[in-house]
Amino acid sequence: MSTDGWKNFGKYGANRDPGNIHGKYALGRALEDALERMIIHGGIRSPASTRRGLMARMNYLTTTGGGAQAMAEAGITATRPTIRAWTRGTQHPRPENQEAIDTAYWNLRATNILNNPGALKQHLNRGGHGTEVEIHPINQDVVEAPRRRSNLRVRRFQVRYIWDDAVDAFVAGDVAGLEEIWDDIIGELDSDWGAYTYVSHIGLGA
């Protein structure tokens, strides 16, 4: 597919694979994946079924704003004395309550990180070093043979300075903003940029 062909995406069959999407959407997914990794990797590792894991989760839920609401939304109806006993480790909840505590913890942690986008920005900016972006071109097997481009490959390069705006657009659900940022990113590819307007996957090294 020629560079001009990307202006009419799907004309030669590229849209037959639902995995071939505009980079703005793939960038949003990549930011969501980076956020999920940040939530999980920075969270409590010990399972909620262990005393240590339970007490750590209960401490977070009882000392962080929104903890009571998170527990209620997870279906926890225990009394205050019971919750204090769980927090101190003097009483162990039933398996269904362990699961609800785990759900409440992760939901609250995710909410707090989403409400503090500065942490994700810092994570991606890495003190000015930026984050590596890995761009996978579209699956061309679905493109009409004469229009396929055999020279497309996975591209990897370091991206700096755009992450504050990218995170703001992601959190706000600003698709137009993500499109502008994606145009800035692929602009680094010089004459090849048009071939990566649509992609099959974007990975972030963060």
Distance linking N and C termini: 32 Å
Give the mean pLDDT: 86
Please tell me how large the radius of gyration is.
22 Å
Strand order of the largest sheet: 1-4-2-3
Largest sheet features: 4 strands, antiparallel
Low-confidence stretches: 1-14, 142-148
Beta strand count: 4
Strand content: 5-15%
Order of helices and strands: EHHHHHHEEHHE
List the total number of helices. 8
What share of residues is helical?
40-55%
> In one word, what is the shape?
elongated
- Helix and strand composition category: alpha+beta
Task: Summarize the topology.
Elements: E1 21-22, H1 23-41, H2 51-63, H3 67-73, H4 80-88, H5 95-114, H6 117-125, E2 131-137, E3 155-159, H7 163-172, H8 175-186, E4 198-204
Antiparallel strand pairs: 1-4, 2-3, 2-4
Helix pairs in contact: 1-5, 1-8, 2-3, 2-4, 2-5, 3-5, 6-7, 7-8
